[in-house]
Amino acid sequence: MKKFFNLLSKEIRELVTLQLVGSLVFTFVLFYFIGQLARTEAARASAPQKIAALDLDRSDVSRGLLDSLRSVNYLIEPASGSDKEAAVEAVRRSAVNFLLVIPPGFGQAVSRFETREVETYTFMRSFSMSATRNAAVFRSVVAALNKYMSDAYLKQRIAEIPPENLKNPIKSRDFVIIKDRQAQGSAGDIAGFVFGQSIFVPIILMMIIIYSSQMVISAIAMEKQNKTLETLLTVPIRRSSIVTAKMLASGLVGLLSAAIYMAGFRFYMRGFTGDMQAGAEVSQVIEKLGLVLDAQGYIILGVSLFFAILCALALAIILGVMAEDFRSAQSLIMPVVFLVLIPYFISFFSDFGALSLPVKLFILAIPFSHPFLATQNILLENYQAVALGILYMVGVFALLVWLAARIFSTDRVLTMKLRWGRKKVVL
Amino acid sequence: MDPVLKVEGLRKSYGSLEALKGVSFQVEKGEVFGLIGPNGAGKTTALRIIATLLSPSDGRVTFLGRDLKNEPEKFRENISYLPEEAGAYRNLKGEDYLEFMARFYARSSAEEEEFLNRARDIAGLGARLKEKVGTFSKGMVRKLLLARALMTMPALTILDEPTSGLDVINSLEVREIIKKFAREGLSVLLSSHNMLEVEFLSDRVALIDRGRILDQGTSAELKDRYQAPNLEVVFRSALK
């Protein structure tokens, strides 16, 4: 074991270079600052908006309209200036971004049930994310005005019936059923929340698998490039220990790198999506339906991911042997990347259950697909599918390790090279 | 007395290409045995097989009475191989590299320290050993690797083109180190296409060309046999 830990420690020291640490820290800090910036912008955009209003009608109707906007959390300020041009000029010079102009005769016209236009002015002072959000403010304002006016019309004409009953005479009580559990709630809300909560799982899986594979391929390629592999293969340690130490070190460093990247990425995404918190109602429904990953769920998911990483590392070791140097190692990672991207995109954009049988079999044959499918299967209590996936990965891993150990025990570790487009015997 | 290494009818093929066509020789205890021949003669292939890196297509290699085929791991405990184009881990300091290698062979920390002290002496790099290998010149790396190969005083040291790519001064220093350890009783198998170097270092030599041993003996015997002033002329005559 002493020799193995000596080798493992060397592998880790070789992988954790100053460049790697620097790039990890830089990326983390960059993601963090972009996320913070986006969060500040989002908070600014979602704060109650100040709207300057120029009421040229001065009727009860127009005053009622403005009061209705105040009641839905808009800060309405009277615009200075007696006409439209003066008001536009005044708002242009101020920090306010919105101007609403209610034309003369507005109240009289709507009293006769005629449609009338209000004028909206949005002052675009930049094209940042908050400016994009500003563009939507007047859509909500006009929707609020229309609601207020249609409610007022209905009250005026049919006073004995609440306007809401007239506008939406049919309501629904929604139930969601998952397996043998049933709860009252909206399927859309639940699906949206679960998707929002688990959106990171496929990204994390993809990053960990690709990172670890890249590390192990690079580790072997560097041995070849630096001409250290031959010496290493003649020291008194089992070849299987060399394979294991490289896999373990690459797995650990890959896992750590992916964790740091993901922590940074989470800060970044939070800046755009905010902290995904379910309302109390949705939380209750989710709990009732058992759509929460408990400790057992996380353990099963972890086991599935662990074997997927092992499969990736074993495959990467074999690919790494074919690398001539560090540069060629970069292209040799591509088969692993493709095999990870296929289940990654399927998990994002498609429903695995709805795929045709040949496509399903193809996806299931890729060992990395199983952790991607595991989250959903655990939530839906399809434990048999998860267990079969893990067993399959154990089999693939055993096969790949056997193959890797065979390669390392024979001449192939020195003579196997992948040459694109030309064949050459290497002595 | 049994030889340290006995090579009998060694063959190695890569597809249709036969790199070794039945090579036989033996290295006695405390002897420096040199394989000389031009590039592509099969020297490196023979050394790689003996160093357990390649498996022979046919033939037998026995080391201290043990068959290489059956016990490659036992072989590795007692040999030290310095490949022609070897490098060291660029991110490790010279001292850390030696320590890393010593730990594979040392049975105790006292022995590890003994190996390291010997390596420091052989390398002669002084304070530079505290620096990363990536900052070393080619000559310094070669001395570090030679120190690594000799520090454990293995039963057999295999050196493939030990001075390859080095300047005159570094080549001289490396040769002197090998000569010094040979005098202390180390068994060495070395290869070179520099026949004068082999003549200087070796007790006995084998002439190898196109996968076959043309002749072998001490330098004096060979020069006498071919009536030649040096091994270069011996080799030319043997080829005829």
Spell out the blueprint of helices and strands.
The complex is a heterodimer of chains A (about 425) and B (about 240).
Chain A: H1 2-15, H2 18-46, E1 50-55, H3 60-71, E2 75-78, H4 84-93, E3 98-102, H5 106-111, E4 119-122, H6 129-134, H7 137-157, H8 163-167, E5 175-178, E6 181-184, H9 187-198, H10 200-225, H11 229-233, H12 239-273, H13 280-288, H14 295-322, H15 326-332, H16 334-349, H17 357-365, H18 369-379, H19 383-409, H20 412-415
Parallel strand pairs in A: 1-2, 1-3
Antiparallel strand pairs in A: 3-4, 5-6
Chain B: E1 5-14, E2 17-27, E3 32-36, H1 43-50, E4 58-63, E5 66-67, H2 72-78, E6 79-82, H3 94-105, H4 109-123, H5 138-150, E7 156-160, H6 168-183, E8 188-192, H7 195-201, E9 204-209, E10 212-217, H8 219-226, H9 231-239
Parallel strand pairs in B: 3-8, 3-9, 6-7, 7-8
Antiparallel strand pairs in B: 1-2, 1-4, 4-5, 9-10
